[in-house]
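Sample 3 of the quickstart, ligand adenosine monophosphate:
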Amino acid sequence: MLSTMQDVQLNISRILEHGRKVHGRSTVTTWTGEAEPHRRTFAEIGDRAAQLANALRDELGVEPGSVLATLMWNNAEHVEAYFAIPSMGAVLHTLNLRLPPEQLVFIVNHAADRVVLVNGTLLPLLAPLLPQLPTVEHVVVSGAGDRSVLDGLDVRVHDYEALLAGRSDHYDWPELDERQAAAMCYTSGTTGDPKGVIYSHRSIYLHSMQVNMAESMGLTDRDTSLVVVPQFHVNAWGLPHATFMTGINLLMPDRFLQPAPLAEMIEREKPTHAAAVPTIWQGLLAEVTARPRDLTSMKQVTIGGAACPPSLMEAYEKLGVRLCHAWGMTETSPLGTMAHPPAGLSAEEEWPYRITQGRFPAGVEARLIGPGGDRLPWDGESAGELEVRGTWIAGAYYGGASGEPLRPADKFSADGWLKTGDVGVISADGYLTLTDRAKDVIKSGGEWISSVELENALMAHPEVAEAAVVAVPDDKWGERPLATVVLKDGATVDYTGLRTFLGQSIAKWQLPERWTFIEAVPKTSVGKFDKKVIRRQYADGVLDVTRLA
Ligand code: AMP
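Result:
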């Protein structure tokens, strides 16, 4: 028997029109680095998204299915592109501006982007690549920046504001099949070429509803969210779409991502929420330790993308800011888990839940697969690779314009689940604790050592700013941990002192023999520890390693 319910397609244009009308007074504030930030209401963003769509169709010949890239910071214009492009039936492709040039070239060519919308400040990055990007016909430049770098190149150059000026603020958004492509994002590709994930209108719509649930970020139009996580990093964790559903005000840092301007933004604009990877929160912590600021407007902070050291959570707790740990991936849109503790617990009882990666929502099914391919119980002890499935989880990668979708066996199970490559345990009540990436775990004498556990324990030392632990080859044990440590200014602790400290919480056989102090932990394009660089540095002998007896 079929239902008797209406079959309305979950199109992004519906989110846009809702936000534009019902939450027309909510605002997107963009930091400018000048005396006043720039403010635009959702009503204005809606008008301008329609103007942009009209311009893209009438001036640039954009058609349904055309792929349009953005090379932009987090700002109001990027939000306009987020809505205009998918709503008109085209596909938004956000480019990670921190990728090495050769990967950017690969991605743009693979996606066959026809148009690049770019912030003027990023033209020096884009211009030298354009001769290698034959599919790009148009470049649309937003904001200040020297446009002469585009002179003589075989593209049509447009000014964003000039394109919008005088256009109708009405667009008859097409009724789209909700399964069509809306946006695409390539994985940050630490191994091999980046792989493209294509989100549908439906997946983005449903994911946005999840973001807005109280068990996830649960914000309303009384909130302002400081979105530090870039719009090119998994759709800024879904926040721009989610906010137009519920009227959450957005505070966008544009290119001002350093700790000092972030601290100033928080103090002046008083966001109630923020979202960013641990590296950002580490940097901000050092800043406010040196120059105290009031961060207490932030009632909740979503931290994820890499493991949040419990010591970082504690440090912010002392500043009156509650960090909520979340896990996700490009392939999961990204919301997988969030670490809200169950009801009815004291603060002390909540703590063990808060330092997990979090609880699965109803929309994400999870299973753990052991080394032999067997399915493991949710008992908080059995460690295996996490596999997930759900309506906002990727079922394949983009195979290119003429290719079939790709389902490599190391990424997708035969029955269609996503293999996350993350290793961990799940408790009986559905909380995930990750112990490592499958490729980062240290296999020592047939036993596994969690690099993340060692890192968290090291970063709990008061004189340690950051620490990354990687597996290095060892004649006797196969692999052993190498601890690379960044000390805080004025620290006096030595390797032996750190090892003794670790010994208070870590089993003796897991303690590293190899140690090195470094200036900074190498980071990936989205601010995560780049362990492959450390492993290479060790292999190349460029690290000054001390071996304790
Ligand atoms: P990306 O697709 O670049 O966002 O990377 C996704 C990967 O980041 C995941 O597969 C995890 O390995 C890692 N990750 C994300 N969130 C967390 C977290 N809260 N704790 C530990 N690792 C995380």
